[in-house]
């Protein structure tokens, strides 16, 4: 379904979607209210949603659209995805799975079409439909590793597509004080990071900062990898501090989970714990292997709660996961490993 008040945008997006035989255009709507009405009659897998529209608009309507979407994913396609970080991050926090900046008039072509189609394919089917049609041969049966009873000394969390919503769910359940530093790598462009940090801090109810070189890792402080650097850990004068690295990663992601996981495994050993949330691709799998080899633990989000079960699936398939759960249950598992320091 395409939801946009611009007839030109609806027409161009429709042609792009229908140019690939993998997709069928089920409905178009000019307002969020029309989209909600249409969802009473049609079932869709993905909703392309503009944020700037008459009426309630796209942003404020996301919860109502999701309530009526029967498991469909929302992808924001809006000029605000480039110009308005506040609105875009808010949309992702409300449950939108992905966001793309809408090209200006006359530039609806070329690379944008390729990216749109690849993102749509990554999102796949609506949640309830995806599980029922998944081929049996693709079901992953991998054993879980035993989780150490040793206390966690650091927590590193990585996420991509759909990650902001998953991170909010995780932190809303995590006790407000767990007594250890927390690192976060979320695939987002650099201009979005200050807004993301501010909004995540509200959900996490703790100090949340975009990491800078030399910034101390303090108990219950959340440090977020900036959009243009990997977040590592090194020894400072009085303990561990953040170190930013801008070298290329094996997955091509910037920032990447792999160097973050490898870094905490080197510094903290069996006191390191990693969490891999929703996202496309395999970023994090190599770093998670090194974390496990050092005696640390890796937990991953389950397929049913993921917007895209790519990164967590890679962890499970590699035999690195000690738990596969929704974000809120992952938070409870982490809390159980921090001993007496966790309290509300």
UniProtKB/TrEMBL annotation:
PROSITE patterns per the UniProt record, alphabetical: CHEB (PS50122), RESPONSE_REGULATORY (PS50110)
Superkingdom, natural source: Bacteria
One Pfam family this sequence matches: CheB_methylest
Listed PANTHER family: PROTEIN-GLUTAMATE METHYLESTERASE/PROTEIN-GLUTAMINE GLUTAMINASE, PROTEIN-GLUTAMATE METHYLESTERASE_PROTEIN-GLUTAMINE GLUTAMINASE 1
Positions of the catalytic residues: 160, 187, 283
4-aspartylphosphate PTM positions: 50
Stretches assigned to the CheB-type methylesterase domain: 151-341
InterPro entries: CheB-like, CheB_C, CheY-like_superfamily, Sig_transdc_resp-reg_Me-estase, Sig_transdc_resp-reg_receiver
SMART domains in UniProt: REC (SM00448)
Protein name (record): protein-glutamate methylesterase
Every Response regulatory domain range: 1-117
Reaction(s) catalysed by this chain's protein: [protein]-L-glutamate 5-O-methyl ester + H2O = L-glutamyl-[protein] + methanol + H(+)
UniProt keywords, alphabetically: Chemotaxis, Hydrolase, Phosphoprotein
EC number: 3.1.1.61
